[in-house]
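Researcher: Batch entry, complex prediction.
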Amino acid sequence: MDFSLVLSNLLNPPVLFFFLGMLAVFVKSDLEIPPPIPKLFSLYLLLAIGFKGGVELANSGITQPVILTILAAIGMSLLVPIYTFFILRTRLDAYNSAAIAATYGSISAVTFITASSFLNALEIPYDGYMVAALALMESPAIIIGLILVKLFARGMEGGDRTEPINWADVLQEAFLNGSVFLLVGSLLIGYLTGEQGWHTLKPFVQDMFYGVLTFFLLDMGLVAAKRIQDLQKTGVFLIGFALIAPPVNATLGLLLARAIALSPGDALLFAVLCASASYIAVPAAMRLTVPEANPSLYISSALAVTFPFNIIVGIPLYQYEIALLWQGNLS
Amino acid sequence: MDFSLVLSNLLNPPVLFFFLGMLAVFVKSDLEIPPPIPKLFSLYLLLAIGFKGGVELANSGITQPVILTILAAIGMSLLVPIYTFFILRTRLDAYNSAAIAATYGSISAVTFITASSFLNALEIPYDGYMVAALALMESPAIIIGLILVKLFARGMEGGDRTEPINWADVLQEAFLNGSVFLLVGSLLIGYLTGEQGWHTLKPFVQDMFYGVLTFFLLDMGLVAAKRIQDLQKTGVFLIGFALIAPPVNATLGLLLARAIALSPGDALLFAVLCASASYIAVPAAMRLTVPEANPSLYISSALAVTFPFNIIVGIPLYQYEIALLWQGNLS
Amino acid sequence: MDFSLVLSNLLNPPVLFFFLGMLAVFVKSDLEIPPPIPKLFSLYLLLAIGFKGGVELANSGITQPVILTILAAIGMSLLVPIYTFFILRTRLDAYNSAAIAATYGSISAVTFITASSFLNALEIPYDGYMVAALALMESPAIIIGLILVKLFARGMEGGDRTEPINWADVLQEAFLNGSVFLLVGSLLIGYLTGEQGWHTLKPFVQDMFYGVLTFFLLDMGLVAAKRIQDLQKTGVFLIGFALIAPPVNATLGLLLARAIALSPGDALLFAVLCASASYIAVPAAMRLTVPEANPSLYISSALAVTFPFNIIVGIPLYQYEIALLWQGNLS
Amino acid sequence: MQPAKRLEMIADSIELQKLLAGLQKAGISRYTVIHNVEGWGVRGIMASTGDVTMLDTAYVIAFCTPEQVQSTVEILRPILKRFGGSCYVSDVMEVKSNPD
Amino acid sequence: MQPAKRLEMIADSIELQKLLAGLQKAGISRYTVIHNVEGWGVRGIMASTGDVTMLDTAYVIAFCTPEQVQSTVEILRPILKRFGGSCYVSDVMEVKSNPD
Amino acid sequence: MQPAKRLEMIADSIELQKLLAGLQKAGISRYTVIHNVEGWGVRGIMASTGDVTMLDTAYVIAFCTPEQVQSTVEILRPILKRFGGSCYVSDVMEVKSNPD
Ligand SMILES: Nc1ncnc2c1ncn2[C@@H]1O[C@H](COP(=O)(O)O)[C@@H](O)[C@H]1O
Ligand SMILES: Nc1ncnc2c1ncn2[C@@H]1O[C@H](COP(=O)(O)O)[C@@H](O)[C@H]1O
Ligand SMILES: Nc1ncnc2c1ncn2[C@@H]1O[C@H](COP(=O)(O)O)[C@@H](O)[C@H]1O
Ligand code: NA
Ligand code: NA
Ligand code: NA
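Model: Structure tokens for the complex:
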């Protein structure tokens, strides 16, 4: 594994601002991004990512590889929460296990973006329609999380979970929660307006993109560092989980990607989708539908461990795996 | 009337995001733009529109057509509230009638912008100094609204309106309310700094423009959809008014535009100014100077009926009227 | 002194928006920029200025002139608070004197930016690494301010200042206060990522720059005008100080700049750093470390007097001085 | 002036809709919401940093008549139990537009 | 600690200047304003969505001495009557910097 | 419902860390902070415009048991004395998740 890969991944401004944010907390600087500014940046990123993806989808058309990729993505977002649930269940109750499992079945858009910058830097091509896969991995993970609660949380303390699942609520949260709605809506609008729409919005959604991302990552660094304190309470099990799940999920993802013959660039993005955990859409959904779970656990592990792990170690590691796995293909 | 015109007007990202916002409310998504972000966007749009208009005014110079257009605009912003007042008065009290009349005498900058995008798409030229007309249509409508209250609200319940008009307050609100002040101030600064100033601010006020507009319209969609509930209480009269006033005012505007020989492009913008209703400057002014009126009425009709009507049906309709009216001219 | 210089300095959009903001307050318009928007702009400006400066530092390298300039800057930020303290002490108590002295030893980034626009307009070259000087002038001034309190505030009312200085707190505030941290951190990241990082962030930190600055100055105009009322209470002494200190400090700075052979462009920027007073980093630091001082005094004099003075009169005046002082050099 | 009660509730904004619906059901249709407050609650440090996570805490104030309190509390209690959040009641005097 | 009163007012920010001038007139020059609160009031749903319309609701808190209440209320009442908005008074204990 | 106390504090956000540490020391670990409020205080008009200066005022609410009040006030008083800001205590009834 080429160490300069790691470095080149880290030495770009958005990632460095993430570490600056963490540093600010460690040295007790009073730097902060006041609310609701971070929410504005989140909304911007969702809109921009979705719209861009939609335009690229319009360009590529909804071809067979696109459909295959999307199916694979949905598959992984169903599989990951199921198997991780049983691992988590060995130490945590069913509510927390299901919520964390859903978190890891879903995705982190910012990790995805960092991976695409990484590919850009290496001049490895990838397809814009991967964003469609991203957009469609949030909802299934949320639904699976809730089904797991339903199946395994019977008779627990606080377990008035004998009432039937309120599917209206569940689907509402899975498909219509603000973040998912904006992401998918922007994707559709991008798809509908295509090149002409792109022309209108490019200076906003493209040129500003890395700047807003930089600010957002500065804030994420601040939050992640504060969350690290939370983790000390959760103990070593969850931290270990948050470090080991990503490469395992990425590897599963890569094997699947290889099977459906994704290009190396697309495979990296796919791996990163599988490896990353949600801290935007899923926490909001879990808070409402699995209120028994402790948000500290699922937010902190996704944000303070898995996210930095993927950024620092994960992306170059998965790229290295791809170099090995796709080798046969290339020769 | 060419249906593809309607479609091409609707199929641009900002307008589609307006509908996405409305949809979010209808399907009960929890998407929202937290305050004070929408206010930031409003301020940006006022600054950008004003500044751009000022620069274009500096380019064109204050020529006779400019002055004629501005006079026509002021004329319409005086005429519209007077005649609509008497129509509204048949069903509503003098306070509410005057406030709604003032709202329709004034303008909606976002409708204006959508109309100029529409012209851009059709490659129909128009003059940048039309923004000066826009900027000068807010204040007269506010003043007329207050005079109408003064003249017709005597002896009403809560009618301690026998005291003389506090002209200081009225002129204050008409000319110095935050939105009007920023719009006119930016126009002046644009005029003063001309091309050189344009060079400095172009990336901000021009390149970002449609992006911010997109976000703003997303929020307007959210608000408009929520406001639709308000309207159910107000009954069919006001909804009917909010649908019929725009085309009537647009047609009056077009006849005047024809009389002073505006170009077809300028005529469309002029029609849209006449047809649209204010939901930024006037509500704030009315809230303070006609507190007896119910803000739900004037805000909701402008925002939830007239605005979408103009965007969906109005703009292409007025364009169609222009095609008929200006035909003689062109042949 | 060329009057057209003054005009050309004033006739650029950001500066005009500053006056528009002041005007809004004077005519009692209700225009306002709601919190926390101004803080977002502050953070943006610090990030953009720091990052740009870092990239330019990477380009120039840390050469001897760079080091010399930085040392001169640190020197001035130590010297200015010491001598001004004794002048202020003639009329004010030790706490207030020290806080105001620290304010004037530090810098105003926005004044610096206005001066660089001025140089751009005159097509006078200057070095990007001057930002490094800017970034390093905040902390020393804060430290000197606190040492002055320690030395001279013994036995005053509220004078439990016999306890030893809490150096941990002082250094914390001097080096890790949010604004300083972000500015220096961005400088470092700019330095580390150099041209490649610049490429990523240029549309954000460069193209948007004057737009955000415009908004920020509009807000500063609003605040400065409100602060003028405060000053009426503080009496003529402090106003006089706030008008005389800038040209004196600028002149000291110019003599030093001449001695270390700065180019005329760099000399103007250096003069402006010496002449300007902090209203971002230092007030926050003083509020915490010298709570006995009245924030109205140090904030209002920096913001409502010294800032506009430098913008209107100062910059062209210092430029005129440079024309005289550097003449010998050029001939 | 006339005696009235202040209801204060603090909860995740995601739970807000349920609480507000509860108020509505109890006949309280006037209230004020402060969004984006920062909260440290029973669920560990920063139960709701909000920001990056799209979760944020809201603070709701509703003034009502003393008679409305009891039934409102009955309606809100199960929601608070299920989703967390707190509710407090206190005494105020209402200043009516017309002197009494 | 020492008895004091809390005045709470909720009103459109556009009306705020008049209320604050009223406070000033009543000798109350210290107060805190929370902007951009969301309000549902007597004038229908979302009397002040704020946002797009540049209208927003503000929440004002002023602590004062028990003696100041009566005259302040007299001054505020006509403003509230004319422009809407609410005002409530309640009891608090002030923690003074110096123990009493 | 059960008697409790509301502690309200208003202070520069820069001072906030010290106040919150004080609460923590007094055993109060649950509280709510409203940032970016606008304040007019004893130090002249706009003691904390905030905005351009990076200073802003924060409003802190903490509900606690009646027993916690005394010791908390002891801890906060010197901080308020040194850095300014105000603190008020009042009575509330806490609505517990479980009926009592
Ligand atoms: N005793 C309290 N005083 C003030 N705010 C509280 C208190 N308890 C809870 N909160 C607020 O309510 C939110 C949810 O609390 P909890 O349900 O305890 O996690 C917290 O984030 C705080 O903002
Ligand atoms: N009973 C109440 N409790 C809390 N807030 C209220 C109450 N009544 C009015 N308000 C607030 O005051 C604003 C104006 O109210 P109104 O004058 O009734 O339209 C509303 O938007 C609410 O934010
Ligand atoms: N009597 C009061 N009522 C409401 N807020 C106050 C009061 N006194 C002080 N404040 C708030 O506390 C902040 C600091 O006050 P001070 O320590 O008096 O400068 C002010 O900016 C106000 O926001
Ligand atoms: Na995943
Ligand atoms: Na109109
Ligand atoms: Na200086």
